[in-house]
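User: Hey, quick favor. My workstation is busy. Could you predict this chain's structure for me?
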Amino acid sequence: MKQNLLVELFVEELPPKALNKLGDAFSTTLFEVLKSQGLTSETSQVTAYASPRRLAAHISDVVAKAADKSLSHKLMPATVGLDANGKATPALLKKLTALGADESAVSQLKREHDGKADILFLEGTAAGAPLSEGLQKALDEALAKLPIPKVMTYQLQDGWTSVNFVRPAHGLVALHGSEVIPASVLGLQSGNTTQGHRFEAKVSPVTLRHADHYAEQLHTEGAVIASFAERRAEIVRQLTAAAAKAGPQLTPIQDEALLDEVTALVERPNVLLGQFEDEFLQVPQECLILTMKANQKYFPLLSADGQLSNKFLIVSNISPEDASAVIGGNERVVRPRLADAKFFFDQDRKKTLESRLASLDKVVYHNKLGSQGQRTTRVASIASAIGQQLGGDALASKAAQAARLAKADLVTDMVGEFPELQGIMGRYYAQHEGLDNDVAYAIEDHYKPRFAGDELPRNQVGVVVALADKLETLVGLIGIGEKPTGDKDPFALRRHALGVIRLLIETNLPLKLNELLTIAYDQLVGVDALQNITQNNGASSTTFFAPETPSILAGFIYDRLSGSLREQGYSVQEVDAVLALEPQQLSDIAKRLEAVRAFAALPEAESLAAANKRVGNILKKAEGDVQASINQSLLVEPAEQALAQALASVTPQADAAFAAGDYRASLQALAALRTPVDAFFDGVMVNAEDPALKANRLGLLASLHQAMNRVADLSRLAG
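Assistant: No problem, here it is.
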C-alpha cells in the first residue's frame, strides 16, 4: 500500500552557511536510494525541510514493500555445465552454490541458443525489499554522502560509544503514513516525536500524527517553519514590511548570502527595527554596512539613492509581546562595533597613504618576489609604461601614482579589521588627502574585475592600474613556475587572466597582447626591486624569468579566452579558427567570430574550408620556405591561370574590407574563389617534375593561403 513517508533527523544547531545544501543533499539521497530499491512510485515526489535543528524529507507515494523481481542468471554453455549423461559438472554446481541454489535446481535450468551454443540460465524471483530494510539503507547512505563542512566526534548516552557527524543528533522520526518504520542511525531509534522551538513551542515534545502533518504540526504546535524556502520567503516579506514602516523609501540591503545565512539561524523569524546614533554616519557606509552584516547579521536600511540610514533590521528567533528588550540589546551590541569602525577611520586619516608605503616592505608577498612594497614598485613601473602608450605623460604619471598608493591601505587599521574593504578605504583616504579623483578611484578599482560579472574600473587610470596589477601577478608568478595545474590555482591566476581579457576587450584598448606582455616582462626583469630580490637569492632576474615567459603567458591567456568564448555560445570550430591566428587586438575577436559564423553559413564555405586545409598540408610538406609570390609567365595550365586571376581580383577587395575592420565582407569576398580553387585541384599537378613550375604553383597556393587566413584559419571549419 502506498503512503507518504516522513523522515527527520533532529540535531543541535547546524552550520548556517551549509544548512540549505545539507537539507537538499539529505532529501535527494534518501529519495534516490529508495527509488533504486523500487520503494517509490512514478508519482513520487520529495520535499526537503531544513531548519537550524533539523534535516527532514517528505516523500510521497512510498510502498511498504518493493515488488518482487524476476531474475535470469546466465550460467555457462550447456556443454560445460552438463556431462554426457546430463548431470551437473563441478563447475555448474559451484556456480549454483554461489547464487544460493543447489543440485536440485539443475532440472529447472532453462536453455537458450545464442547462435553458437546452448546456454544455461537459472531463473527465479527476488523478493522485494521491505520499507524498513530499504529505509535503513537509504538513511545510512544519506548520512554518509552529506556534504559536511567539518565532522565532529561525540559520545552517545552510554558514555562509551563514539560517533561522527556534523553536530550531535538527538532524535529520529520515520513515519510511513501514521506508522513508525523501525530504523536507527547515530545511536538513535526511530519514533514519531520531535522537538519544536527552543523557547516558543506550545508542546514539548511534538508528537507527529501522520507524515503529512509534519510541517503543519511543527508550525502550530512547535512554532517552527520547517521549510527553508518558506522561512526565507517569510523573512523577505517581514523585511519589506518593516522597511516600509521605518521610513519613506527605505529598503533593506539586497544580499542573498546574508538572507540565506539568517534563514539558517532562525526557526520562526521575527523582524524588528533598530537604530544607532547619526554621528556614526560620518564613517564610510561600506564600513558600517560590513560590520552590521558580517558581525551581527543585520540588514542595513538604505534610502532611495543608496545612502545608508541610521536604521537597521534584526531577524530575531523569538517573538516576545514586548520586543523592546530584544531591540535594545541588539542596539547595545552594535554600538561598540560602529564605534570601533569610527575609531579606525579617524586614526587612519592621521597618516597619509604615502607615509604608509615603508610599512609595505614588511608585508611578504612571495619569497621569490619579495614584499608588497617591492611589488608595488613593479606595478607602478608597468602602469607607467602602459599609461605612456595610451595617453602620454599625463596618464603615465597618474597611473604610476595610483599604482604606488594602491596597496597602502593594506596596512591601515580599518583594512586590518575588515580585509574586504581593501581598495575602498584607499579611495576614501586618498580623497581625504585631496588627491586627484582619477587617482583615488583607480586605487579602489584596481582590483576589478574581481569575479565573473564584476564591474570594470570606472576611469582610464583605473583600467591601466588594474591591467598593470594583474600583469605583474601573472608574469611574476608564471615566471617563477607557479602556473596552475589541473584544478589547483592557489594564486587565482586563471581569474587574473580573465580579468586582463575583459579589460582589453570591454574597454576596447588599442594594445596588442604580445606587446603588452613584453612591456610587463621588461619592466619586471629591469626594475630594481626585483633585481635586489633575485640577487639576494643568488640568481639573476633573468634566471627566474626566462625569455619565453611572455610566450608561455600568451598561451595561458588564449586558453582562458577560448574557454570563455565557448561559454558565450561560440562553437569549438569557430573559436579555434579565430584563435589559431592568435589575434593581437583582443577587442576585435568578437567581430572575427561573427564573420566566421556568417562565412560558415555560405554554400561555398565547406568546399573552401576543405581546400584551405589541403593547401595548408601541402605547404607544410614543402621543402624550405615557400614565398607567397606568383610568376605569371610560369602559369601554363588554364586552371592555375584562372585561380591567379581570381586571386588578383578578390584579394584587393578582401584586404580593403579587412583593413576597414569589416571582417564579414572580407571573408564573404573569398566565396568567389570556390570554383577556381576546385578547378585547380581537379586539373593541376602541384608537384610538377619541372622545379620552376612546382615552385610557382606552391607560391600560388601560398598566396591563396595568405589571402584566405587573415580573419581566421578557415581550415579549422573543415569537418
